[in-house]
Design a protein that fits this description.
With about 140 residues, the chain is an alpha+beta fold. The protein contains seven helices and four strands, in the order βααβααβααβα. The chain has a single domain, classed as Alpha-Beta Plaits. A four-stranded antiparallel sheet has the order 2-3-1-4, sandwiched between helices. The chain is globular. About 35% of the residues are buried. The mean pLDDT is about 95. Bound molecules: inosine-5'-diphosphate and magnesium ion.
């Protein structure tokens, strides 16, 4: 299957704070993604709680939501053939320690919680997450 897809990417607070926004966007472009829409925002904790609702029962949920709302983030709609899977590969594993060489999390991630980027994990979730940030 090779369909043009869209996925949601977030440059998380730890990366924005270290001024990595431009570098990370260049990695997406270099890897064939088009940035269809983007905005730099700071969200409220209750919005982060909605966004990460699937993790509601996890022990790290509260810290995760505090963290995502702790500073500016850059949210982007990325487009490419097989964008969802391709972005997950480019991001690398959740824990930067396990992320493969050349991945964004390997290069920039600080820890499992401060792992620099978010990416949708399925086509269905990509649609929901894009709507969450860009439907107005
Ligand atoms: P993903 O971002 O690779 O899709 P998820 O399992 O969906 O990983 O977790 C969402 C986010 O929650 C991760 O990116 C990371 O910031 C945080 N997280 C995941 N697992 C842990 C953990 O064990 N401790 C602390 N934070 C975690
Ligand atoms: Mg996830």
């Amino acid at each position: 299957m090779s369909d043009i897809e869209q996925t949601l990417s977030i440059i998380k607070p730890d990366a924005v704070e270290r001024s990595l926004e431009k570098e990370i966007k260049e990695i997406f472009i270099k890897n064939g993604f088009s940035i269809i829409q983007e905005k730099k925002i700071q969200i409220e904790k209750n919005e982060a709680e909605k966004f990460y609702k699937v993790h509601e029962t996890k022990p790290f949920y509260n810290d995760l939501c505090s963290y995502l709302s702790s500073g500016p983030i850059v949210v982007m709609i990325l487009e490419k053939i097989n964008a969802v899977k391709s972005n997950r590969e480019l991001m690398g594993s959740t824990n930067p320690k396990d992320a493969k060489e050349g991945s964004i999390r390997k290069k920039y991630g600080i820890s499992i919680d401060k792992n620099s980027v978010h990416g949708s994990d399925s086509i269905e979730n990509a649609k929901l997450e894009i709507d969450f940030f860009f439907k107005d």
